Amino acid sequence: MSSAQEPAADRPTKAMVLAAGLGTRLRPLTESVPKALLPIASVPIIRYALKLLASHGVTEVMVNLHWLPDEVEAELGRRAEGLQIHYSREPTILGTGGAIRKVAGFFDRPFYVINADTVIDLDLGALLETHRRAEAIATMVLMERRKGDTYTPVGVDENGLVRQIGDHVAYTGPPLKQHLFTGVHLLEPEVIEYIPPDIESCINRYAYPKVIAAGRRVAAHLYRGCWSDVGTLERYWQVNVDLLRRRTQLAFFDPLAQFAHTPRKDVDDVIRLGEKSFLGEGARLTPPVIAADGARILDGAEVGPEVVLGTGAVVGKGARLAHAIVLPGAKIEANTEIDGAVIAKKMVVPLKTAPAS
Fold first, then answer.
1. How far, in Å, CA of 86 to CA of 273, rounded?
2. Rounded CA gap, 49 and 132, in Å?
3. What's the pLDDT band for 3 if we cut at 50, 70, 90?
4. If we measure between CA atoms, which residue out of 95, 91, 36, 98 comes closest to residue 236?
5. CB–CB of 316/301 below 8 Å?
6. Phi then psi dihedrals of residue 44, to 5 deg
7. pLDDT for 209-236, tens place per residue?
8. DSSP state, 161?
9. Is the separation of the CB atoms in 146 and 227 below 8 Å?
10. Rounded Cα–Cα distance for residues 321 and 333 (Å)
11. How far apart are CA 218 and CA 187, in angstroms?
């Protein structure tokens, strides 16, 4: 049965979105902004996960928090993207396994788990089909490994079952096909019984080895499509550029659709302006550019290509800005020239590699 035919009553209606991470590899940006709220095409990352879940019939989501939790709650409130939002605050980070175990009572039927920093164009209905067909207790969403990948390899046998996760699961059988894990799972509530209580734990390291050793099935759902975990500054930049240049188009959400179109009818490339955005006299935009709600580009400023201005961002008079993401509320001073950076309030973080158009 395809996802379009799947009866609504049989679909998972709850999910866990993991948002407690410190975003260490994205510092110093994440010293003042939780990683879950870093904008992609001016939309906070976590909203991509929420929109994906909502588009597949999920109605309630548990979000775990640790670093700057007030900011995340202020952004989402109790309802976001049509979902009822619950929060689990962790004074000490509990890891993926511990986070799920802490809120075990929230789950009474199969549920999705997704990282808040994951952008993936995944058909959750197809994932559910794989899960049921395999009669699995858990299903991991995997992708083919690519040259240079440093992610922990996940070994899958000829029957589509996970038999090895790095060196966490002992395995001595025939050679396995190696994949990488996207951070998306579909779990039966019984999996929680394999997670140790009240301590930090990783579900891949502590729970899945026990599940597999007990003879329970962990299935692999192989996915080919858009995916980014936005774990580094370079990957954060790249997913923004891919959306700006329309290299990536998501089936469940178009982040550019919320804005007004180009201010000049003869420009076909991506220029999007939010409500109450301002263009000063002589200001020039070179696409692709997004200027979100309340963004101000003052007289004589030159913006683009590949620039995302967050809500309330300001580009000063005569400034020149290219290949950049300006976080909400940040300001570029007059006559400043920046090419290749992420700009936050009182902070300019250069991109390590020259941006490629």
1. 32
2. 23
3. very low
4. 36
5. yes
6. -55, 135
7. 999 989 999 999 999 998 988 888 988 9
8. B
9. no
10. 11
11. 9
The token duo for 353 is 């590699």
Is there a contact between 304 and 289 (Cβ–Cβ < 8 Å)?
Answer: yes
Angle between helix axes 45-54 and 69-76 (nearest 10 degrees) is: 50
CA angle 96, 100, 102 (to 5 degrees): 120
Q: Which helix (H) or strand (E) holds 86?
A: strand 83-89
For the purposes of burial, counting CB atoms within 10 Å of the CB of 347, is it exposed (0-12), middle (13-18) or buried (19 or more)?
Answer: middle
Q: Under a CB-based contact definition with an 8 Å cutoff, are residues 186 and 134 in contact? A: no
pLDDT of residue 348: 92
Amino acid type, 188: E
How far apart (Å, rounded) are the C-alpha atoms in residues 330 and 347?
Answer: 9
Contact between residue 291 and residue 274 where contact means Cβ atoms under 8 Å apart: yes
**Can you name the residues that pair with 108 across neighbouring β-strands?**
none
Count CB neighbours of 209 within 10 A. 17
